[in-house]
Amino acid sequence: MRTRVILGVGLCATVLAVIAAEGHAEACGGCFNPPENPTVVTDHRMILSISKDQSTLYDQIRYQGSPASFAWVLPISGEITVGLSADIVFSGLDQITQTQLNPPPLNCPAPPANCRGSSSGFGGATGAEDDGSNGVTVIKKEVVGPYETVQLQATNPTALDDWLAQNGFNVPADVKPVVAKYQQENFNFLALKLVPGKGVQDMRPVRVSTKGANVALPLRMVAAGTGPNVGIALWVVGEGRYEPQNFASFTIPTADIVWDWNQRKSNYTELRAQKTAAGSGRTWEIESSTIVYRQQIESIVNQGSYDGSGPFPQTDEERAARDYLPVTDDQGATTKTAVQVRDEDMGTLFYGIATATSRVTRLRADLVHAALDADLVMRASPDQSVLSNVRQLTSAVGTPQCPSFSGCGDDGDGSSGDVTVGSGGGDGTFTCATGPRTGNAWIGLGLGFAAVAAAHAIRRRRDPR
User: Fold this and answer.
1) Per-residue model confidence as pLDDT tens digits over 200-252
2) Cα 447 vs. chain centroid, distance in angstroms?
3) Partners of 213 in the β-ladder
4) In sequence order, what are the beta bridge partners of 365?
5) Of 180, 183, 219, residue with least CA distance to 378
6) Which region, left, alpha or beta, applies to residue 453 given φ > 0 means left and ψ of -120 to 50 means alpha?
7) Which residues sit opposite 291 in a β-bridge?
8) 48 Cβ partners below 8 Å, 6+ apart?
9) Residues 27-66, buried b or exposed e (16+ Cβ, 10 A)?
10) Per-residue pLDDT, 10
11) I need a surface site. Which of 34, 42, 67, 222 has the fewest CB within 10 A?
12) What CA–CA distance (Å, rounded) separates 75 from 33?
């Protein structure tokens, strides 16, 4: 008989803010239009790595409140391995797999013949022990980064509640019935709290690994403390395409997506909302399932995050230390450097997954609270075709606007249809203004890739080596 393994979702919601970034898109040498990234606010972001030998859940935690009040409880089966990850792993996967909608191509006049310049465009262990509390057995205790962790086995929910309260794990009242239900189903539990003296700024994403590939996500735990709706983003890393087994799912065909030239956006979000409503808020969207190699994620993670504060990290250790915590022993001596912790994290993310067949399936759900009455079970999809995250749209409504060119010498007659030719600046360059570009950008820990790239470019110019 196969045992279903539950990897838990923490009790703390991951709330990520989204802002609109406005700028001007410039494209020289042709007609370009900025792609649309239909990103929406997400309450929970999780990564699930699946191989036949091991499954790992990554959960991004964001908590506001007193550090002493923080508690994170997960139902588990058997003994598991707990480790730390970094926000940059989530940001990297989001960057690589983000849905990109490219408008239909334009048929615009070419730039004036006397314009010069390069073209640019938008690319797309301790043994079990009885601690004396009636009905609760401590399987394992350890400190993992800023967290005190304990794996527990309980014979009745009342004893478990008492143990957690007596040991400083402040589980909310509305969570206790959910914990009791898992206990009745013979699950063990992982409980985390912050080490005394640590603040919420020290928190890191947690990863939980268990043997085997049979995996489910305990949505019943997500229900605790949420409102009438909850948004969940999930990346499944494995050797193929995955889909929900016990929830309905859908994809949005590219042919159904229509670009509106007047609004400079598509109807993608409206289609998603319609399909979600048709599924009564109990359905998942499979946004994409693409080939993603370990080296792609490692390139982003190894680069490290940089928010512009302090000196730019010069060494590999400095870059790793911005995102990862070193491991220390009881005397404070370093047993694993930040680089080693980072490399171990990448090894865990792709554990047992062959490079040639590595896939990342990106899913999105806006679930009503009533849908959080069952755990999400994943399975390999019967359709193993690649579902690209880059969509080239062909249908459109409205009137497209061709770019304007400026900064070039007059071509002699000053007329070029819809193209406006500038009076010339004497530098032989031109710009193509396609209008304001408005899009969504994630705000959170672990970003700053553009700043990193710029800093690298500056350093290369200064140091030809």
Assistant:
1) 888 889 999 999 886 788 888 877 767 788 899 999 999 999 999 999 999 99
2) 11
3) none
4) 232, 284
5) 219
6) alpha
7) 359
8) 7, 55, 56, 57, 58, 215, 217, 234, 235, 236, 237, 378
9) bbbebbbbbbebbeebbbbbbbbbbeebbbbbbbbbbeee
10) 44
11) 67
12) 48
Question: Measured between alpha carbons, how far is 21 from 89 in angstroms, rounded to an integer?
Answer: 23
Between CA 11 and CA 225 the distance in angstroms is 8
pLDDT attached to residue 307:
74
Q: Quick check: 30 and 431 in contact, CB under 8 A? A: no
Residues 6+ apart with CB under 8 A from 386: 241, 289, 290, 291, 359
Token pair in block for residue 275: 């399909």
Report residue 151: phi and psi, to 5°. -105, 125
- Distance of alpha carbon 84 from the chain centroid: 16
Per DSSP, the residues of 191-233 read EEEEPTT--GGG---EEEEEESS-EEE-HHHHTTT--SEEEEE
Range of the domain at 96: 5-121+125-462
State how far the Cα of 354 lies from the Cα of 339, in Å rounded to an integer: 23
Confidence band (pLDDT; 50, 70, 90) for 32?
A: very low
Which of 323-330's residues contact partners 24+ apart within 8 Å by CB, and which partners? Answer: 323/86, 323/87, 323/88, 323/446, 324/84, 324/86, 324/204, 325/84, 325/145, 325/146, 325/204, 327/145
Q: Which of 167, 198, 145 is nearest to 73 (CA)?
A: 167
Give the separation between CA 83 and CA 56, rounded to whole angstroms.
10
Residues 6 or more apart whose CB falls under 8 angstroms from that of 448 comprise 305, 306, 307, 308
Number of domains in the chain: 1
- pTM of the predicted protein model: 0.74
- C-alpha dist (Å) from residue 25 to 109, 143, 306, 462: 18, 48, 24, 28
What are the tens digits of pLDDT across the range 156-189? 888 888 888 888 787 777 778 888 889 888 899 9
d(CA 286, CA 362): 6
Rounded CA-CA distance 100/222 in Å is: 29
The closest alpha carbon to 386, from 287, 284, 273, belongs to 287
Give me the amino acid identity at 65.
Answer: G
User: Residue type at 350?
Assistant: F
How large is the angle between the packed helices 449-462 and 294-303, nearest 10 degrees? 70
**C-alpha distances in Å from residue 439, one per residue of 90, 123, 225, 345:** 19, 15, 30, 31
**At residue 56, what are phi and psi to the nearest 5 degrees?**
-135, 130
Say how far residue 42 (Cα) sits from the centre of its chain. Answer: 10
How many angstroms separate the CA atoms of 77 and 11, rounded? 18
Would you list the DSSP string of 138-181?
EEEEEEETTEEEEEEEESSHHHHHHHHHHTT----TTTHHHHHH
